[in-house]
Amino acid sequence: MAQHEVEISISKSGEVKVHVKNVKGKACLEYAQWLTDVVGKVKDKQLTSEYYEPEVKARIDLHQDLRVEDDSA
Amino acid sequence: MSTVLILAPVIVSSWPAIAVAAAGAASALGFTVKQTVQDALQENEVEEQEQSVEVELADSEVLAQNLATDQQMVLTKGGVQITVGRDARGRCKVCATGKGHSKVELEQMAQQFTEKLTQCFIYDRVVRELKTKNFQVVNEEVMQDESVRIHVRRWVD
Q: Does residue A47 lie within any of the structural domains?
């Protein structure tokens, strides 16, 4: 499981600064769009290096070695 | 880090949600809600020397279906009265009236109230939406510059 974090700062005039953390790739854009719909309109947007990193996919490889032991030896 | 967004607030909502934000702003700025609009109007007729200033929320729209024409909120603090309502174009307007205050002072008060109303409205909306997305509040604090900082997180598969 991944932990997504958002830091939101609402200024005294109602302007909102949103910092989406630990969210990579397309999911990051989805958060940005969702928060834009909630608040109003985009004034400025900065994509950081993490945005361009591939989304993390968890994969577990299982290997099982089958060995027949020869008891006659 | 992933993304940093700066968002300008737009208030498009029905009257009840705006009234809640106005009540929040009133409470934060020390205003009290008057019982009826009629009381305020009658007092205004008597006190003719009062100055009055109107401020309009540029990016706002009060959805008309829930708002009767006389529906507005009247707030008082000292000798100043603030009225929150909807203008003919459907925008939210804030009107400051008071005796013994200059137009500049009243405009400043109306502006301050408008900002607080916007902040309260956006705060309510953001917190409600965060809950629907199952975010947990890690920390929330009011900073020295009167901004509100909310730190939330959630776990996703």
A: yes
The answer to whether B4 contacts A40, with C-beta atoms less than 8 Å apart, is no
Best mutation target, B1, B7, B115, B128, to test chain A (most A CBs within 10 A): B7
Q: Is the pTM of this model over 0.80?
A: no
Q: Digits of tens for pLDDT over chain B (157 positions)?
A: 478 889 988 888 877 888 888 888 888 999 888 755 555 555 555 455 677 787 777 676 666 555 555 568 888 888 889 998 887 777 888 999 988 888 899 999 999 999 999 999 999 999 999 999 999 999 999 999 999 999 999 988 7
Q: What is the ipTM of this complex?
A: 0.79
Which chain A residues touch B8 with a CB distance below 8 Å?
15, 39-43
- B interface test, pick of A13, A26, A34, A44 with most B CB neighbours within 10 Å: A13
A30 in contact with chain B, both atoms CB, cutoff 8 A: no
A61 falls within a domain: no
Q: Are B155 and A1 in contact (CB under 8 A)?
A: yes
| CA distance linking residue B122 with residue B119, whole number of Å | 5
Domain count along chain A? 1
User: Are B126 and B115 contacting, i.e. CB atoms less than 8 angstroms apart?
Assistant: no
Asked if residues B14 and B63 have their Cβ atoms less than 8 Å apart, the reply is yes
